[in-house]
Structure formats: C-alpha cells, structure tokens
Design a protein that fits this description.
Domain Cobalamin-independent methionine synthase MetE N-terminal: 26-340
Oligomer: single chain
Number of helices: 30
Shape: globular
Distance between the termini: 80 Å
InterPro entries: Cbl-indep_Met_Synth_N, Met_Synth_C/arc, UROD/MetE-like_sf
Bound molecules: glutamine, zinc ion
Strand order of the largest sheet: 1-5-7-8-9-10-11
Radius of gyration: 26 Å
Pathway: Amino-acid biosynthesis; L-methionine biosynthesis via de novo pathway; L-methionine from L-homocysteine (MetE route): step 1/1
Pfam family, one: Meth_synt_1
Region (Disordered): 401-422
Largest sheet: 7 strands, parallel
Structural class: alpha/beta
C-alpha cells in the first residue's frame, strides 16, 4: 500500500515537472554551521583581524561544509541540504545572491561585501540586524528600494551543489524564499512614502526563475525555499504575493522540484494558498505549529485535505528544543498526515541551526539528564529512525509502535538506537512538544479560521494587557512619586550618562576563567583578577566622567549562563554553542528542574564596585523572561510557570542588592520581544504574563531605588506600550542604527518614563563622532523632557576593545555635556 502512495506522488510530480524524482524519506531543514569546535568563529575573527587570508577563510568554509555533508550522509539521512552554510547570515547571502547590495558596501570579493554589509566599514554604518522570528538568532536586514537592481550575483547556491557533487554527494540547495526575503527587508532610505519591499516581488521572482533554471541545468532535483514569514498573520495582499510567486516559479518548465518550507508555527491561511500552487512539496512544523494543524492530541483538522497529492515534509523532531523526541507521538502525527498527503517525509521542525552539534561531547553532564537530551546529530538520528518506523507502520489504521518492526530491537546504539528512542517516551521532559506549554500555543486554536490580520510580522500589542498586569503586582508608588524620590536621592544631571553593563571581556579574563574551570587557577587568584578588572573599569568611568557607573560584569561569561550557574534547576554545557549572529555564539543553559536561588549572586561584586567610588553604581541583573528565553527549557511545565519561578529568584536578588545599598538596579529584559508569539491572537496573553513576571521580579524595590531595564531592539512603536507596563523607571533601547526614525515614533514621544535611546551601535567597531551623537541628543531632547533622557550606547560593551570603548564613551560624554549646557 505504501507503494501505491508513492506512485501517486510520483504521478502528481510528473504532471508538473518531468525532472522531479520522489523526495527521499528523511531530511533536515538545515544544520549548524559554526563548527563543532567553533572553527568558523575562529577563522572569521582571525580574518577580520588580518591574521589569515581570504583563502584560509574559504578553506575553513569548505572543510566545514564537507564535514556537514558527510556527517549527515553518514547518519543515514535521505536528503542532504546544501547552501545552509554561511560566512555570516543566510538572509544577507540571499540579498547578495539577488544583487541587492547597496552601492556603499560593494567590496572586492563576495565575502568582503557580506562583511561590509554586516559590520560596516570605515565611515559606513552596517545594515540593521534583528532577531530571526522568535529565536535568538539574528539576521541582517536587507535594504530594498524602488531602484534596487536585481540580478543573479555570485553563484553560492550553485557552487555548493558542485562542491558537494565533487565529493560524490547530491544535495538540495536551501534558499530563502522570495516572499519572506522581501517581508524581512526594509525600504531603502529615500524610498517614496508607501513603498514596501514586497512591491518588488515581480523583479525578485524573475531572479529566482533564473536561479532555478541554473540549478536545474546543474542536475539539481529538489530546491528548498524557506518561507517562515508565512506562519505569522499575513494580509490578503501578502497571501496574494505568495500565490503569484509560487504560481510563476511552479510554471517554469526547466526547474527542480519545489519544496517550500515553513517553520516556527502553522501556515494557517497561507496553507491553502500555497497548496493551490504547483509546488510539489510543503514543509509544516508539527512541533511549534502542532495545535494549529490540529495535532495537539486527537485527530487533525480538515484543512489538511488541501495537501492531497503534495509531498509533505513533516517537522516532527524539534529543531529548537533539546529534548528527545517522543516517537509515539511523532509517529502518530506522521501516520495521520499520511492519510492526507501524497507522500510524507520525516524532518526537523526547522533548521538545526538553533541547537548544538552533539550531546555526546557533554561528558560532564549528569547522565540522567544527558539521556533525555538530543542535539543536532541525535536529532538527525531521530529523523532517520522515524522514517524507518513510518515506512514499517501499517496503512491506514493507527500505528502500534510495538509492532513497528525489527528495527526496535537493534541493540548497542546508546543514543540513537531505536530502543533507547522508545525508552525516552516515558521519561519526564522528553516529550515532543506537540502542544507547546503556555499561552504561546494555547491561544492559537486553529488560527487559520480567523480573519486575515495585521500587516507587520509582529503586531502591536494593545495596552489592555498592560493594565491587567499592573493590577496584579502592586508594590511601588506611581512613577511621579518615585521619580521625585529618586531625583532627591540620586541628584543626577539631565541627560545622565551611563552604559548598559558590560565592559570588554578581555582575552586575559577569558583565559583566567578557563584556567579556573580547568583547575589551573584557584578561586582566590581568580577573584583577585575580577577585583582588579572592576577597579580598572570604575577608574576608567570616573576618568571619562560618566554619571552612573557599572562594575563591568567581568565575572560573567554570559548574562544568562552566569545566573544559570548560580541557580538550582539549571545545567550548563561545555560545547553546546549556538550561533547568535556572525561569529558570535551563546551556550544556552538547560533549565531542567525547579528554579531556586540558594544564595545571593551579584551582591558581592556590586558592593565591591560601590566601595570604590562616590558615584552611583548600577546593580546588574538579567530578567526572568530573558533567562528563560536564552535557555533550553523543560517542557513539562507551562512556560509561564517556569518564568515565574525565575522571577522569584530575581526578586530575591533585587531585595539583597537594595539591602546592600545599591540604589540603581538594572534588570535587563532584551528577550521580551523575542518570545512574543508570531500570531497576534496569542500576543496579548503572552505580554500579560511576561510583564507580570518582570514586575514580580522588581516591584519589591522602594521608591528611592531606581529600576532600569534594557531591551536590545527598537521597534519602539510595537513594544513601547508593553515596556511602559514593565513600570521600570528608566529603559535603554537600541536605536543607533535607526535613530531619527525612533524619535519620530509617537510611542517614544508619549513615553512616560526615563528613556535612553542608544546613541551608538556597539555591534560595529566604529567609533561615533561627537557631532553625530550631539545631533541625536538634540533630537532626543526635542522629543522628550531632558530630565528623562538618558545617554548610553545601544547595548553592553563586552565584545569591543578597551581602545574602542574609551574613544566611543569619551565622544558620548562630550556630546552629552554640550547638549546639557543648552537645555
Ligand atoms: N547588561 C548586559 C550587558 O551589558 C546587557 C546585554 C544585552 O542586553 N544583551 O552586557
Ligand atoms: Zn542589549
């Protein structure tokens, strides 16, 4: 009967394109690229610092690609993707491939062009960077104008196909789809009012047509076009763009099979639109979109009927969490799907970019925890095994896993063996998140049925949620009362200058921490090193004339991991690096149990810093939403409950800092926006509990204590209502890359608290000029009362050098003084 299904699929494919052979039975949507030992990070940074040549960098890239392809093939994966490698970012690569390179960035080689766009060059600011949907990966925002000349440029997708073929491998190139590419782009400066990048769809699709032709000529059988933007609410015009784009690409005569991948949620009203085009394969996320597709337990929804005759690439193994997949649930979903689709391919829910390489490297983890974990290579194993189980599962009755065939008896494969895969089903935390916990998913009941909704990818939250939250967590006086008490107590000038918290993490500091971990340095010697760094940072800030000082966070490897290491309920990995942007990686902790704070965490170093100066020193904490967002989180509790546990730990820390005489406490919540559900229907309830968690963490502070928060992004209009509800006294936000626009936002002008719109971009090594900062500050005091304007960089300084930081902060302080004299 399986053969019957396959031949139907083949016939279906034959109707649209003669070239297409059936999609292999298993694949992944993408794979990590930074290297298992962060080889790419090292190569990039050494190239940028002039320590190696472009040829050296290219050869590291080739080695990593070869390793990836051979690994995936070796793990038994049916279809291996290519073009998932990138020297910086796949959105940026797409812009370059389409020829969408603003003239100011053109450089001698494609790589240098990419780096110029991502990092800027002397005198040229880089493109904006922002978070990739609701993940902690950041992409570079392409700039598209009415005059952008699109033309195929470079040959990255094609050359990777050739490179793989030279190694004896056939691959499926992965491209960002045209609709998502344009929806993620921003209008080039100077574009006429009303212009949106999607207006250029026809031209962009033209370039994709040529690219598909080239790939077909190269013998490529399937191409993956990623369209994650389709899992957010889309307007009728945007859905129409989907229809036109794929109708056109589908009607090409010489082309590979088209596989359109969606992920991070369910397709909703985009599903019938896409299914109505000639694309042969559609990828659905049955982990994060499970509820939307009706896979939250019993049965599936009728909308799946539209998949008849299509190949469905079913993402049943999470590409984002690190828990082992529950094979029974996954298999049940696959079998149910098979009743509707022409063919079912087993896959990951999204690219494995978001998880570390290999749990086998984590020899220090408690074996009881390690058994429950699955990183990229284990997930590939799960996909392959599920494909085997699906193949053996009878049609059409519900599957019995016990009867799934001889494969379940295969002995001796500890992690990826089917026997252990089945074992995982009953263990806590090992469940496939078929119904993701918390309101994020709960509020998405078949959202496909709802009316076509809001324009942007993340719709603006209503202030309603905020009001509800305010009522829930009482404690502090109204802002004007607190502001007066703080003014009296702190006596700060207007346009007070400060930083976001971290100062450069020098190689020496990192080496000391590594030596401590390896037992080569004792705790006392390490503490002396930290103390010396704090002394240095305090002295530097006094010399520069900053008003509110920080201790510089030298003791922290990372703003989340540091807290995870000091809280119960978390485990940290040794090699579990995940790319955040470019060469930057994070090692997300694993939150696997109840969270508790056994002892104060930050009080000691904050107090030490305070003892060194008469100026106020800000205590520095990471907020509950961010700690959870940047960790891999247990899935046996609603996300909200986990966040509240963390909030209680932060609350205890706030109280201890206050008791130690720290009068300004910053609780960073840079990930507040990141966890925002992509569908509007779920956003309000998310914001309600996220805001409540923040207030729970901070509302014990007395009126004289000034609470600051920091957010790493700037879609001010979309988020400021919620930020206002956080009720922090001062908020610093990123804005240097889009300053003028931010200050024009009505939400900024109406912001009723202290606000520090970042005056320079810390992601780039460029040092800002005094006149530029001064001009921005003048604009800021036009928009807000000077007493509520704070002067700070966009974000923490840990990735910069002391030379850059000193020059940049000196310019910032000078500019603030000049403007202060005139207000
Ligand atoms: N306090 C942190 C720092 O300065 C904030 C970093 C962040 O927002 N990502 O490093
Ligand atoms: Zn930040």
């Amino acid at each position: 009967e399986d053969a019957r299904v396959r031949s139907t699929a083949t016939q279906g494919a034959r109707m649209t394109t003669a070239r297409t052979s059936p999609f292999p039975d298993s694949t992944v949507l993408g794979y990590p690229r930074i290297g298992p030992r962060r080889e790419l990070k090292r190569a990039l940074e050494s190239y940028w610092e002039g320590r190696c040549t472009l040829e050296d960098l290219r050869s590291t890239g080739r080695e990593l690609r070869e390793r990836t392809w051979r690994r995936l093939e070796g793990l038994g994966l049916g279809a291996v993707p290519s073009n998932t490698f990138s020297f910086y970012d796949q959105v940026l690569d797409t812009a370059v491939s389409l020829g969408a390179v603003p003239a100011r960035y053109r450089a001698g080689s494609p790589e240098d062009t990419v780096f110029a766009m991502a990092r800027g060059t002397d005198g040229v600011a880089p493109l904006r960077m922002t978070k990739w949907f609701d993940t902690n990966y950041h992409y570079i925002v392409p700039e598209i104008g009415p005059g952008t000349e699109f033309a195929p440029a470079g040959d990255k997708p094609v050359s990777e196909v050739r490179e793989a073929r030279a190694l004896g491998l056939r691959t499926r190139p992965v491209l960002l789809g045209p609709v998502t590419f344009l929806l993620l782009s921003q209008a080039a400066p100077g574009s006429p009012a009303g212009f949106v990048p999607l207006d250029r769809l026809a031209d962009v699709v033209g370039v994709y047509e040529r690219l598909l032709g080239e790939l077909a000529a190269e013998g490529v059988e399937w191409v993956q076009l990623d369209e994650p933007a389709l899992v957010a609410d889309r307007t009728g015009a945007e859905l129409e763009a989907v229809r036109t784009a794929y109708q056109r690409l589908g009607s090409l005569t010489e082309r590979p099979g088209l596989f359109v991948a969606s992920y991070f949620g369910h397709l909703g009203e985009a599903l019938p639109v896409l299914a109505g085009t000639p694309v042969e394969a559609i990828g659905v996320d049955l982990v994060h979109g499970a509820a939307g597709y009706g896979f939250s337990g019993q049965g599936e929804t009728a909308e799946l009927e539209v998949l008849a005759g299509k190949t469905v690439v079913a993402g049943v193994v999470s590409g984002r969490e690190v828990w082992r997949t529950d094979p029974q649930r996954a298999l049940a979903a696959l079998v149910a799907l098979r009743a509707h689709a022409g063919r079912v391919v087993v896959s990951t829910s999204c690219s494995l970019l978001h998880v570390p390489y290999d749990v086998e490297l984590e020899s220090d983890l408690d074996p009881r925890l390690r058994r429950r974990l699955s990183f990229a290579d284990q997930k590939v194993g799960e996909v392959v095994e599920l494909a085997g189980l699906l193949d053996a599962a009878p049609l059409p009755a519900a599957p019995s896993v016990a009867a799934a065939g001889p494969a379940t008896e295969e002995p001796g494969r500890e992690v990826m063996g089917p026997a252990s895969l089945l074992d995982a089903a009953g263990s806590p935390g090992a469940h496939l998140r078929v119904t993701p916990p918390g309101p994020v998913a709960a509020a998405q009941p078949v959202a496909a049925a709802g009316p076509v909704a809001a324009p942007g990818p993340v719709a603006a939250p209503g202030p309603v949620a905020a009001a509800g939250a305010a009522a829930e967590e009482p404690g502090r006086s109204p802002y004007p009362v607190r502001a007066a008490a703080q003014a009296e107590h702190l006596r700060l000038p207007p346009l007070a200058t400060t930083t976001i918290g971290s100062f450069p993490q020098t190689g020496e500091l990192r080496a000391a921490r590594a030596a401590l971990a390896a037992g080569r340095l004792d705790q006392d010697a390490y503490d002396r090193r930290v103390r010396a760094e704090i002394e240095h940072v305090i002295a530097l800030q006094e010399r520069l004339g900053l008003d509110v000082l920080v201790h510089g966070e030298p003791e922290r490897n990372d703003m989340v991991q540091y807290f995870a290491e000091h809280l119960e309920g978390f485990a940290v990995t040794r090699h579990g690096w995940v790319q955040s942007y470019g060469s930057r990686c994070t090692r997300p902790p694993i939150l696997h149990g109840d969270v508790r704070r056994p002892a104060p965490i930050t009080v000691r170093w904050a107090s030490y810093a305070r003892s060194l100066t008469a100026k106020p020193v800000k205590g520095m904490l990471t907020g509950p939403v961010t700690i959870v967002a940047w960790s891999f989180v247990r899935d046996d509790l609603p996300l909200r409950d986990v966040v509240f546990q963390v909030a209680d730990a932060v609350r205890a820390e706030v109280a201890d800092l206050e008791r130690a005489g720290i009068s300004i406490i910053q609780v960073d919540e840079p990930a507040l926006r990141e966890l925002m559900p992509l569908r509007r229907a779920s956003q309000e309830s998310y914001l309600e509990w996220a805001v409540r968690a923040y207030r729970r963490a901070t509302s014990s502070a007395g009126d004289r204590t000034q609470i600051h928060t920091h957010l790493c992004y700037s879609d001010a209009e979309q988020i400021l209502a919620a930020v206002d509800a956080l009720d922090a006294d001062v908020t610093s936000i990123e804005s240097a890359r889009s300053h003028a626009r931010i200050l024009a936002e009505p939400a900024v002008a109406g912001f009723g608290r202290g606000l520090g719109p970042g005056v320079y971009d810390i992601h780039s090594p460029r040092v800002p000029g005094v006149t530029q900062v001064e001009a921005w500050l003048r604009a800021a005091v036009e928009a807000l009362p000077a007493a509520r304007v704070w002067v700070n960089p966009d974000c923490g300084l840990k990735t910069r050098t002391y030379a850059q930081v000193e020059a940049a902060l000196a310019a910032m302080v000078t500019a603030a003084r000049r403007v202060r004299e005139t207000v």
